[in-house]
Amino acid sequence: MSNTLDQDAFQRIKNRVEKRVMKTKDINVADILTFSDREAIAKVVEQRVHTEYGDMYDFKWSMKVSGHFQIPETL
User: Fold this and answer.
1) Distance of CA 44 to the CA centre of its chain
2) What is the dihedral of CA 27, 29, 32, 33, to 10 degrees?
3) What percent of the chain has pLDDT over 90?
C-alpha cells in the first residue's frame, strides 16, 4: 500500500512539473476562418435563434473566437 501512495505522490509531483514547463500561444481563431466559414456560422446562429426565439425583434450579434496551444518547453 505504501508503494501505491509513493506512486500517487510521484504522479502528482510529475503533473505539477509538467504544468510548469508548458507555455501557451494564443491565437485569434477568427483570423483563419474564410468568408464562407463565417457566412456558414452566421446562418447556423441566425437559424437557431429564429427557431428558439422567433423574429419578433431584430437580433444583433458578434462573434469572438480564440484558442491557445500548449507548447512543452524543453528542460
Assistant:
1) 20
2) -170
3) 29
Give the number of other CB atoms < 10 A from CB of residue 62: 4
> Residue for cell digits 473566437?
65
Q: Which residue type occupies 4?
A: T
Q: What is the three-state SS of the chain?
A: CHHHHHHHHHHHHHHHHHHHCEEEEEEEHHHHCCHHHHHHHHHHHHHHHHHHHCCCCCCCCCCCCEEEEEEECCC
Q: Mean pLDDT throughout 43-61? A: 92
CB atoms within 10 A of CB 13: 10
